[in-house]
Amino acid sequence: MHEHGIAGDIVHVVMHKCRKAAATRVERITIQVSELSGMTEAALQMALDHACEEHGIEPFEVQMVKNGLLGHCRVCETLVEADDAFNCRVCGNGPVRVMADEGMLLLDCQFS
């Protein structure tokens, strides 16, 4: 199940952001995943709970958004939601390489 590997990566990124924000606890995150990921919110939540336990931190809630295909811009190296023309919404260039299951955007982190 690829959610376990992804969950470990998410925990590392989120904890780094938590430290930078001088917060003590992650409450909730919102992520956007590609329509092609095949990932469910419940499976990812279970994997995140396990990853948090392995890292000795309090579990946090995940909210998943699936709306559109994610792509990687070859010009500005940004992960973006691909539009119909597959142009980058950040720099306007193309082509954007559509991501299958590896594309994920961290949209929001709530700390306490």
Biggest sheet details: 3 strands, mixed
**Number of structural domains:** 1
The CATH class label is: Alpha Beta
Order of helices and strands: HEHEEEEE
Describe what this molecule looks like in 3D.
There is one protein chain. The protein is an alpha+beta fold and 112 residues long. The chain is built from two helices and six strands, in the order αβαβββββ. The chain has one domain (3-111): hypothetical protein PF0899 fold. Strand 1 (26-33), helix 2 (41-55) and strand 2 form a beta-alpha-beta unit. The termini are far apart. The chain is globular and about 45 Å long. The chain has helices at residues 3-20, 41-55; strands at 26-33, 61-65, 70-73, 79-81, 96-98, 104-111. Helix 1 (3-20) crosses helix 2.
Keywords:
single chain; 112 residues; alpha+beta; hypothetical protein PF0899 fold; 3-stranded mixed sheet; 3-stranded antiparallel sheet; 2 helices
